[in-house]
Structures are given as C-alpha cells and as structure tokens.
C-alpha cells in the first residue's frame, strides 16, 4: 500500500542550485502554491489591501442592506403596487400605517387628537414619505372611534421604505402616552422589525457558536495555533464579502439575508477547507522532517503536495458549492438572487483565501503551526487508525450498516409527504414588535382581514363592474368606494377587506376568484397578494432548481472523478439527507414538536422559500463532503487499483476531517435554532439536521458502503467518455 504521507517527489530542480521544485512535475495548484511562497510579499500586500479596502465598508452592511425584495418579479401584484405608488400618493403595500389607539374615549378628541397631530407632523417631515392621509371614518377610523390609522404613502422603492420604517419607528412609538398607544405597522415595518430581531439572533448565535467552534477545532487539530487558522479564513472571507455586498448594494438592492447566509457559509466552509488543507500539510511536513528535508525547497514541496491533493479537492468542492447555489438565480425574485449571490461571494473569497493566503501562512509558520499543542496531539498523523478500523468494519459487513443507515434516513424522510408551505405570517415577529402589535390592533378594531387589505387598480370605466364583483364575493367583508388617481392617468383604486387573516389559505382562493371574475384591466395587489404570487412562483421554480442542481452536481463530480457510477450514486445519496431534514422540519415547524423548547409559536406550515433555497444550500454542503471523501478514494484507487484500499483509505484519511467539519457545522447551525424569529430557526434546524445526517450517516456510512458494493465498477470509465473528459488526477507522487 502506498503511503499518501510520503514526501513529495518533484523531480530535479528546475536549474542547477535552484531551491524550488521543478514546475513541470507539479499540477496547476502545486505550481500556484510554489508561486505564492515565492511572491509572499505581493500576496500579503494584495490581501491586506483587499481586507482593509473592503473592510472599510463592512461596518455599514447592517444599515445599508434591506429586508425587502421578497416579490415575484413581473407578477400582477408587483405591477399593482408600482401603479399605486406612482398614481395614488404612495398608497401601496409598502406604505407605513401608524396605528393610534386611545384607552380613554375617542382617539380624535383630547389627548388622542394631539398625538395624531404629532404623528402627522413626524411623517410630513420625512421627505421619503409621499402623501400623508388622515384617519377616515368608515375606512381607517374604527366604528367605536378608539382606533385610527394614519397612512404614510410610499415615496420611495420598497427597499428604501424599510429604511424609512427603521428611521421613524422609535420616534413614532415615543409619542405614546399613558392613555394613547402609537404603533407603526405594515409590510415595511414588518421587515424593519424582522431585521432588528434577526440581527439580535445572529449576534446571540455568534456568541454561542464561536466558543463551541473553537473547542471543536482545538480537539480536531490538537494545537491552538493550528485551530486558529480556520478562523483566519473565516474573518478574511466575512470582511471581504461584507464590504463587497455594501458596494454591490449601490448598484442593485441586496437583501440583509445575503449577509446572514454569507456569514454562515464563510464560517462553515472556511473551517471545512482549512481542516482539509492543514491536516494534509501537517502530514506532508512530518514526512519531510522524517526525510531530513527541512530547507525552503522541502517546505515548498510540502506546500505543493498539499495543494495538488487537498487543494484540488477544495477547489472542486468550492466549484460544486458555487454551481449548486447558482441554480437559485433561476428564481426571478430579487431577494433570492441577492441571497444566493451573497453566499457565492463569500465562497469565492474563502476559496481564494484557502488557495493563496492559507498556503502562505502555512509556509511561514511551518513547524510553529503545532505550537501550544495538547498532550494527546499527533500532528503528523494523516491516516487515522480509528477511521481505518471503521472502514474495515464497513467492508466486512456492508449490508448491515448500509441498510441500518438507509432505514434511519427513510424513517426521518417519511413525514415529508405531508409537508405544507406558505409565506411567513406575522408570527415570525416577537410579540412586542411594533409591526405585530399594530397588526393585532388593526385586527381587533377593523376585522380579521383588515391587515391584509387588497388593492385593486383598474381603468375608471371598469370601477362599477369591479365593485359589483367585490360586493358579491363571499371572501370580501367590505370594499371602499373607488378612489380616483391623483393625476390624469384614468386609473382608480378600490380597496377591499378580506374576511380572513392574511395568512389563511382561504385568501388564496378569494384572490383566484377575483382575478377570474374582475374586468380585464383590474390588477389585484396588496401585501398578502404579493406573498401569494411569490409562493406561486417558488412552487413553479422549485422543480426546475432541484433538477438543475442535481444535473450540474453530477456533471461536476463526473469531471472530477472520471467515474460515472460513483458520481451518480454520490449525487443521489445527497437527496436522502435532504429529504430527512425536511421530514424533521415538518414535525418541528408544521406540527409544533419541540416548539416550546426552541421558543417559537408554530405557524402550521414551513415557510415557502425553505424548500428551494435550503435544498440548494444542503446539496452544496453535502457535495462538499462528497468531494472530500471521493477525491480521497480516487487518490487511493489511482495509486493501488484496489477498491478496498480506495474505500478504507478514504475513510482513514478524510473521515476525521469530515467528522470534525460536520461537528462544527452542526454546532453553528443549531445555535441559529436557539434564538431569534422563526426563519432563522428553520434555517438552523433544517441545515443542522441535514449536515448531521449527511456527514455522519451518508458520507461516513452509506457512501463507503456503496463503494464496497460496487467495487471496481465504481471507478470504471468508458473509453468514449475518457476522450471527452479532461484528465484530472488526485494522486501526487
């Protein structure tokens, strides 16, 4: 059996007296590693300038990025909103509604009247507010006179209106007195409050995850200095991606979720990649020390060997992640595209740091990487005896272990059959959030459907017919008289109050009926309709995204491994952990199991954006581990031609890394499940369960069993395919 930790044989020096390995004997990444060490000052300066330059913008990320953009581009509801904003004084779904409620008599008299005047003054002083509409009897003034709504028209786009809400909500709430309560609400306030709650959750999650992450890294590396290297990559990727997102936001709106997901992926993948590279370098360094080669050329050979093996796997893993996430761009929604773009940006920076900055740091630290080592540390150990023994156990009894893991995965995936999805309800906000309090006050005073008032924009000639349709529809509680446009556009708006809460499934049926029965010029909009249109778009896009992700993932594995069978099995195996994660998500978030433990109120469904977006994220992470395991297996198969050595050797050399990286990811993701609104909890539970199952059942049990059962056939490549595919090898002599 060839020992993969043997010192790199790079052939004779490129010229007499040269201290560098001959570049002709190195792969592209090996040559990159040598180039980085030869141009250390240049690489250092470039990274310092990148981090310093982009880091100057990074602190602005939470303020500049928005929470809006959750819309179906080109939909009827978005068209209705833009017409309402342009022709009706900003009376669109993004308008701000300030709910003023008096506990001592009519709100339009006495102290309530004074507060209403102060609210109006604050709104009129804001240049981004269009028309301010006073409470109107029969519309925005309750029948008992205790509750009034002051409407602040949207004078800017949806992203800017979220910032307006953030800037004004504290000042408006401070106008409250002992007898009068002021609570701004509406979709812009919802996003503002959600961003605030989400930021608090992220900060809490970071405080919880970093100590756990560091502890796992110390255990994995056995030395404090080595354990700190993944954090170096993470910080570099985070700072660079945060600053980049702020700059990109100047050109196109970027959702705050882009930064949230970018932060998670920078941490998770930075640790994954650093683990894989550092473990390989320490083994190469130990072998170099044993051979007596401790000079510069010897260090460069260790770097070259590391980059030609682990570096190649990292590059392919990064490309797989990028390809998986790029499929989300097929969803024509600004928020989804910016979120996927934010993650891809962080992956690019982490990948660049792994392939350039990390080799340089390893070259400079050399044996100092093992400083502050723990007593049990064996820094030069690349082949893990425990995981080698685990591989032998799987080889002897593949069916027992394979069937056991398959049964567990299928049992957890079974509940997915009853999974239902819908757009987030007001329950995603804390109970004391201004938008939620105002929402509740509107429902109490104006009816269940009042917070989700529909806005119908149409030609003036169709107003009478539309009003008749609304009057005869059982899903409509009341309709206001047609309101003419403020200009000569010939448009009118009719506002209709549904009979049900905006998150009630019956609202979708009502909207479908109205769109079928209303005159052709009528456009049905409003915040709840925008949610319904987005859900429809997500439902239509999900099969396409899943199909594209699977096909692209398979093709990349095929190019990397040159083996159709194991590439196909590796791709399909990722579906098991994904299905199981969503099965668990149904039990937790739809059925409410564990809701008290996690501290949330079940909405009775999973948020509609979860399947398409989380699938891409889970698949990206799963393929990350797949590349690590199968690249190691391919390396051993190339050296020996023995399928047993390929299977056992891959576990022995990459099992510990997959185990440690999976543990870190699970810890990071589950911390998000312990704090904040429901969406971060969904993200934490779904991704945490998926990584837990994928790393420990699929990659360390089921996939090795598949290698055992398929034997040499796993690595067979037809002659015609060999002629098509580029030559990629993982063995480094």
TrEMBL record:
InterPro entries: MMPL_dom (IPR004869), Mycobact_MmpL (IPR050545), SSD (IPR000731). The chain crosses the membrane at residues 212-236, 256-279, 313-331, 343-363, 399-419, 542-561, 568-589, 609-631, 657-678, 684-707. Residues 232-364, 566-709 form the SSD domain. The keyword Transmembrane helix applies. Its main location: membrane. Pfam families: MMPL (PF03176). It is found in: Cell membrane. It comes from the Bacteria. Residues 1-24 are annotated as: Disordered. It is a multi-pass membrane protein. Keywords: Cell membrane, Membrane, Transmembrane, Transmembrane helix. This is MMPL family transporter. It comes from Nocardioides deserti. The lineage of its organism: Bacteria, Bacillati, Actinomycetota, Actinomycetes, Propionibacteriales.
């Amino acid at each position: 059996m060839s020992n993969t930790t043997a010192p790199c044989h790079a052939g004779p020096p490129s010229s007499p007296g040269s201290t560098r390995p001959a570049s002709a004997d190195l792969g592209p990444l090996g040559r990159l590693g040598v180039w980085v060490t030869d141009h250390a000052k240049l690489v250092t300066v470039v990274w310092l300038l990148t981090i310093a330059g982009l880091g100057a913008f990074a602190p602005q990320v939470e303020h500049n990025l928005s929470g809006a953009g959750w819309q179906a581009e080109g939909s009827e509801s978005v068209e209705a909103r833009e017409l309402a904003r342009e022709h009706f004084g900003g009376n669109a779904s993004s308008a701000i509604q300030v709910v003023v409620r008096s506990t001592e008599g009519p709100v339009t008299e006495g102290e309530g009247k004074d507060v209403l005047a102060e609210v109006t003054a604050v709104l009129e002083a804001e240049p981004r507010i269009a028309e301010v509409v006073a409470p109107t009897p029969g519309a925005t003034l309750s029948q008992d006179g205790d509750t009034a709504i002051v409407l602040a028209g949207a004078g800017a786009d949806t992203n800017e209106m979220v910032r307006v809400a953030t800037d004004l909500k504290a000042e408006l709430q401070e106008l409250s007195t002992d007898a009068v309560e002021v609570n701004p609400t509406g979709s812009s306030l919802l996003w503002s409050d959600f961003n605030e709650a989400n930021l608090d959750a992220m900060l809490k999650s970071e405080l919880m995850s970093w100590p756990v992450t560091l502890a796992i890294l110390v255990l994995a590396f056995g030395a404090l200095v080595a354990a700190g290297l993944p954090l170096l990559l993470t910080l570099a990727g985070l700072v660079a991606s945060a600053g980049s997102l702020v700059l990109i936001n100047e050109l196109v709106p970027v959702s705050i979720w882009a930064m949230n997901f970018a932060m998670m992926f920078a941490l998770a993948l930075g640790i994954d990649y650093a683990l894989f590279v550092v473990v390989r370098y320490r083994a190469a360094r130990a072998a170099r020390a044993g051979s007596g080669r401790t000079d510069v050329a010897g260090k460069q050979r260790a770097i070259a060997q590391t980059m030609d093996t682990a570096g190649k796997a990292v590059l392919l893993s990064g490309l797989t992640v990028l390809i998986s996430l790029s499929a989300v761009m097929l969803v024509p929604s600004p928020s989804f595209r910016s979120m996927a773009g934010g993650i891809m940006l962080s992956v690019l920076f982490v990948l660049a740091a792994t392939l350039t900055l990390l080799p340089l740091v390893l070259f400079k630290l050399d044996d100092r990487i093992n400083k502050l080592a723990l007593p049990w540390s064996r820094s030069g150990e690349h082949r893990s005896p425990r995981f080698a023994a685990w591989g032998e156990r799987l080889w002897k009894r593949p069916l027992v272990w394979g069937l056991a893991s398959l049964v567990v995965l299928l049992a957890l995936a079974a509940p997915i059959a009853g999974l239902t999805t819908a757009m987030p309800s007001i329950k995603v906000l804390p109970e004391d959030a201004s938008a939620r309090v105002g929402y509740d006050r509107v429902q109490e005073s104006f009816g269940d459907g009042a917070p989700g008032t529909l806005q119908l924009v149409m030609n003036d000639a169709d107003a009478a017919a539309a009003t008749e349709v609304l009057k005869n529809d059982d899903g409509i509680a009341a309709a206001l008289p047609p309101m003419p446009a403020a200009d000569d556009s010939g448009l009118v708006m009719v506002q209709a109050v549904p009979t049900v809460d905006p998150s009630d499934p019956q609202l979708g049926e009502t909207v479908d009926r109205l769109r079928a029965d209303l005159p052709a010029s009528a456009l049905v909009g409003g915040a709840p309709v925008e949610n319904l249109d987005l859900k429809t778009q997500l439902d239509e896009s999900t099969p396409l995204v899943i199909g594209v992700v699977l096909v692209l993932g398979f093709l990349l594995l095929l190019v990397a491994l040159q083996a159709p069978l194991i590439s196909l099995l590796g791709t399909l195996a990722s579906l098991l952990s994904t299905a199981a994660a969503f099965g668990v998500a149904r039990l937790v978030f739809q059925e409410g199991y564990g809701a008290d433990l996690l501290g949330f109120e079940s909405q009775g469904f999973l948020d509609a954006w979860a399947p398409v977006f989380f699938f891409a994220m889970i698949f990206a992470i799963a393929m990350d581990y797949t590349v690590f395991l199968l690249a190691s297996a391919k390396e051993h198969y190339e050296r020996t031609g023995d399928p047993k050595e390929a299977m056992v050797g891959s576990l022995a050399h990459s099992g510990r890394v997959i185990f440690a990286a999976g543990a870190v990811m699970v810890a990071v993701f589950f911390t998000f499940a312990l704090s904040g609104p429901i969406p971060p909890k969904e993200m934490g539970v779904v991704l945490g369960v998926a990584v837990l199952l994928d790393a420990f059942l699929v990659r360390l049990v089921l996939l090795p069993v598949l290698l055992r059962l398929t034997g040499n056939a796993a690595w067979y490549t037809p002659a015609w395919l060999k002629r098509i595919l580029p030559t990629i090898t993982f063995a480094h002599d």
